[in-house]
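A further point concerns the way the authors explain their paired sequence and structure data. The central task, working out the structure tokens from the amino acid sequence alone, is never made concrete. I therefore recommend that a typical entry be quoted early in the introduction. An entry of this sort, consisting of the sequence and the corresponding backbone structure tokens, reads as follows:
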Amino acid sequence: MRKAAAAELLGHGYVIDVSKPFHIAWWAATLGVDQADLVRAVRAVGAKADEVYWHLSRQMRHASDHEVSAVDKAKAVAGRN
């Protein structure tokens, strides 16, 4: 996710209108996420850009934690062989 670009947009009360394709495309590009992920985030937390940003940030952090865990498990399994 593009934190610098997003940080400038937070706190202004912007909303993401997922009924407008150009909103989806612009916000997805600005936040550096997939359009489908953006739409799912809006459906999960509402249209406020701030809430969407934080939701996506938490999801990305959670996903990276799982990736690290999977790598650690793979290394552990490889070490046993």
Remarks:
- The radius of gyration is 16 Å.
- The helical segments are 3-9, 21-31, 35-45, 49-80.
- Residues 3-80 form one domain.
- The CA atoms of residues 66 and 72 lie 10 Å apart.
